[in-house]
Design brief:
The chain has 302 residues and is α+β, with helices and mostly antiparallel strands. It has helices at residues 20-27, 97-108, 120-130, 137-146, 161-182, 199-210, 214-227, 230-237, 243-250, 252-261, 265-289; strands spanning 57-59, 65-69, 75-79, 82-83, 93-94, 113-115.
Amino acid sequence: MYVESAICPKRKVTRMEMSTSRLGHALSTQNVCPRGQAIKLLPLLCGNTKPYSIITERKRFYEDVSISKAEGGSFEINLDRRKMKTPGGKLFTAPNEALAIAVANEWDTQKDTLKFYCMHLTTLCNTALDNPTLRSKDQMITAALKYLETDTLCYRVDEPPSLVELQNNEWNPVLNWIEDRYNVVIGSSTSILGPDIPQTTIDTFRQHLSSYNFWSLIGLEFVITQLKSVVLAFALVDKHITVEQAVLLSRLEEEFQIGHWGNVEWAHDVDLYELRSRTAAGALFVHFSSESSTVKRKIMQG
């Protein structure tokens, strides 16, 4: 399975009213109890890649999971001593032990049925190894920066007053932080065209993104597409905000609407849990892909 590429960023706009007190409580919540299963990630198909079956579930066919060191310092994942391969037929390798352990743990924690749509780290590794759309780093950076033009935190409403106040109170601190952190100007706007992002800001962010390696960019772009926000993605990767905060801030208007109209409880829980799962996996992938030290412990102790 591969992750979807960031080509056409979209953003939903809701302007329904609710009390600010309920959302204020929601933003401080740290735990969500899932009531359903995750939504599958659709693979990308490219004319230059090998065709493969779109399998979302499969009966578990192995007993043990382990990792082994390969040539060049990378690590392989072994299922009953058989080496894993990518959907494109390449040998599955992780660039360091930390990421290899995390991927192996995804496979080891699967029960009788393998649910591939829940195995986000494996999916991200497949995307990095096979690169099914044959994109370069520059193309990935350009695609990621497209989200800055429609960043969730940059689009504001001018009514109702309670939502205007909520956006200012919750979004402005993060927006001010990133402007100070990178010495840039972003701003916000109530216009459908959004704010006019200065070219110097785009250039600064492009230079920053260029400092990431290819694997880390895969993860960072994945986080950006989940949150529909470059600002929130940077704040999360820099550990300025938590995964829970990033997700709820990205869903500010949706939570506002739910507070006014109510919600289908199980559907809301599933959607929120799955977004948190994907966002957390993407952030971990960025950090693991940048990890150079060796993890001094064995995998799958029990």
